[in-house]
Amino acid sequence: MFNNKINLLKALAILTVVSGHLEFSIIPMFPPYSFQVILFFFIAGMVFNHKYGFFEFFKKRTKSLLLPYFFYAIFYLGLTFAIAPFIGKFWGMPVTFQNEFLMPFLTGHQIDLISPLWFVPQLFISLVVYKISTFIKCSDIIKAAIFFVLALFAIQLGNFRENFYILLALRTMFSLLFIHLGYLYKNKIEDKVNIFTPKIFFAIIMLQALLWLTNKDFTAMDGIGLSFILVWGEFDNWIVPVITSLTGIWMSLFIVEILYDKIKDWKFLHLIGQNTYHIMANHLLVFNVITYSILAFKGIPFDIKNNADIYWFYSPLKTTYFYFVAGILITTYFGVFLKFMKNKIVPK
After folding, report:
1. Out of 149, 190, 276, 333, which residue is the most buried by the measure of CB atoms under 10 Å away?
2. Which residues of 93-112 are buried (b: 16+ CB within 10 A; e: fewer)?
3. Run of H or E residues at 76
4. Which of 19-33, 135-149, 166-180 has the weakest average pLDDT?
5. Backbone angles phi, psi at 132, to 5 degrees
6. Residue 32: what pLDDT?
């Protein structure tokens, strides 16, 4: 069910994720953390297929989501051990059975270098729960209303996010709404209802402008107040996260729609869309290789990096866009290389 438009939407989604980790927005007025992860849940809903029974669906999602995740987890655990003596820090939690096999589903931050992949086990759980929900016989509109209420309740559960099991539950409840909306868009709206009219465009822009008034600590760079951190259940408002998720999704769909005829044959954009998993898994490694290389070249002690978090990078005003371009290029073609090797080892 993947088509070219969905693939380009995936490319836009991962570009938004990577730009968010470098603290800039590629879509003015729409801070990455106000919708970036939610857009991937929406895309998952767009490609959701009812034809599979539960156990076949579970098997397919395990193979496509969890198996690559744990391959990456094992690789990065080994890499983290290997580089620790050279950089002077172990970028991860203490190695225990719980941290390596349970924490991926609770926080996904057991290994710092693949912390962006927290999304993958969460997506797996959310899709499994959504599949279970398909056995409930009610209209799609009623189901959307139920998921909307669950999303609002999930925001309130953010007050109890210190409990990792509650954190997992609230992320699941919040994401179900957008998986369902993605499914509805693909099957009920796309090619049937034009939601990209000038009036709707200006309405979305005006709504987004009004939403900026909700900012608690206003900065024009990142829109504090519009942004929320789903992985940690951090919400600043009871309704704004839902609205900004919707406006960000609409704007992303709109950008792909209006640019599609111009960019549909851009091979590299399609490669980005086809390798979002590998980009998400590996861009922090690329960022850190660049950072440590610059520090070594300039003779700056690694402590300046090690005393910060995994997302710290050198001289943001000068290097942000170099990190961005290098991160996307290297991880995209690394994904291409991995797929090539897989096809060589395990032919279709």
Report:
1. 276
2. eeeeeebbeebbbbbbbbbb
3. helix 67-87
4. 19-33
5. -60, -35
6. 87
